Amino acid sequence: MIEIVIRSEKGSNQVIDRVEAKLLALKITVKLEAYGITFDEDKFLQAVARNPTLWGVAGTVRKLLPPDEEQVDDSSVS
User: Fold this and answer.
1) Closest C-alpha among 21, 31, 27, 30 to residue 53
2) N or C, which end of the chain is more exposed by having fewer CB within 10 Å?
């Protein structure tokens, strides 16, 4: 999941704008639907708006992850 966030920011400013946030929410929704998990895109967009930096959004997503997946994603980001 964290990988999706990092790959979503295409610019060099490391800020997730509204369009990128909506696209990111859609990608997360699709990934989670494969596991039968419902994702609240509106709440996610509100959280992104509070801290729209790349690392702020990654931190928001990290809080949503269960401990096992968080550890797996941390190793792939390094």
Assistant:
1) 21
2) C
- pLDDT surpassing 60 at residue 69: no
* Residue corresponding to tokens 């859609």: 26
pTM above 0.70? no
Residue type, 69: E
Tell me the two tokens of residue 12: 């060099």
3-state secondary structure of 1: coil
Q: How far apart are the first and last CA of the chain?
A: 14
Is the dihedral angle over the CA atoms 39, 41, 46, 49 positive or is it negative? positive
